[in-house]
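Database export, one record per block. Field names are fixed; values are copied verbatim from the stored entry.
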Amino acid sequence: MNKEETIKKAKASAYYVSAFVKWTFFSLIMGSIGGGVGALFSHLISYVTKVRTENEWLIYLLPLGGVAIALLYHLLKVEHKGTNDVFEAVRSEEKVPYRLAPAIAIGAGITHLLGGSAGKEGAALQLGGSVATLVGRIFRTDEKDRHILTVSGMAAVFAAVFGTPVGASVFAVEVASVGYVSLSALYPSFSSALISYLIALKLGVHPERFNVDVIPEVSAVSLSKAALLAVAVALVSIVFCVAMKVSHNGFEKYIRSPYIRAFVGGVAIILLTLIVGTRDYNGGGMHIIEGIFHGEEVSKIAFLMKIIFTAITIGSGFRGGEIVPTLFIGATLGFSLSGIIGLPVGFCAAVCMIALFAGVTNCPIASVFLAIELFGAEGMIFYALAVFVSFVLSGYFSLYTGQKIVFSKIKEEARE
């Protein structure tokens, strides 16, 4: 090796070391802020959910809550901002407005307090994107570094809220542009998520975990049954995505005012709640999911009712996320199909939950990691099979209109 080659390799090594140090530094910042913000938001949602369950009359304020959310977003000038804008910030020069953070936190809090059907993942992604914008502005990062910061922020708050650092980091890297994985974002994303997760644990946030009591032996029959579950899940994922899109477009087309849209949506949720005679479909519904894994029964059409409640809630302008409802729909669908397909309820619920997540987010790699974190690694071969089957059969439908599917699911080519 001559002197020039030695100098060249030394410079390359120094460059990698400096990049590692830089992203370790930013990961400490993003993870620390994300852990604190995520923990605070998680405790907020837990508190307002407790208040709602103890005061059932609060649901009658839902229409007014919707108007308040619309007014808040107008005052903060983020009326048309949301998760899709976070995805766009990963791919372009667009920035996530930092004002979105208080808007989504308060908006999601109101939705959960008054009984709208929504989750907390959308808020987590938006909070993370807002934090990234603020950090990028303080340190005057360039556009490419800001993209990685946005991914890291998404991963950090998602990990803090759900307690799944590996799945959160891969999801953040994978979700904005399906088929394209930014390798440069993997270390910052995971480091931020891991730090955030550890901080959230210290701040009292309990990670989501579900105990699958019975996992079938691996055989051609059991694998075939898991694949059949995934086929059914893929169909439901399409129904869910279409319902969300139709609801959003319908409300915007026929009711121009965001205040009236939210008011009407709130009234619709109240009427539906009174008609079905249960509060199971209000809020995120995590207690219903947990109940299924503890042997509790739910309605055979609970998955369909949750789709309707969530589509109306989000479509009319209430704020929150779609992932907890997705897990609810998957778990209750698994409950309904377990008797038909002849597999244990908890196992079916787990398979359908993770397969539905893959079907509506188009993130198969993240889904496999999430399955391991949520349910353990023992049934990984079943979860992976269900994820990949659902991913292919769900086509190009998505819960996120801002998600870009870069490569075809069925051919080795870019998607037009």
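Remark 1: The first strand starts at residue 177 and ends at 178.
Remark 2: The chain has two domains: 3-202, 220-405.
End of record.
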